[in-house]
Amino acid sequence: DVKVTQSSRYLVKRTGEKVFLECVQDMDHENMFWYRQDPGLGLRLIYFSYDVKMKEKGDIPEGYSVSREKKERFSLILESASTNQTSMYLCASRLRLAGVRNEQFFGPGTRLTVL
Amino acid sequence: GQNIDQPTEMTATEGAIVQINCTYQTSGFNGLFWYQQHAGEAPTFLSYNVLDGLEEKGRFSSFLSRSKGYSYLLLKELQMKDSASYLCAVRVYYNQGGKLIFGQGTELSVKP
Question: What is the 3-state secondary structure (H, E, C) of chain A?
Answer without folding.
Answer: CCCEEECCCEEEECCCCCEEEEEEECCCCCEEEEEEEECCCEEEEEEEEEECCEEEECCCCCCCEEEEEECCEEEEEECCCCHHHCEEEEEEEECCCCCCCCCCEECCCEEEEEC
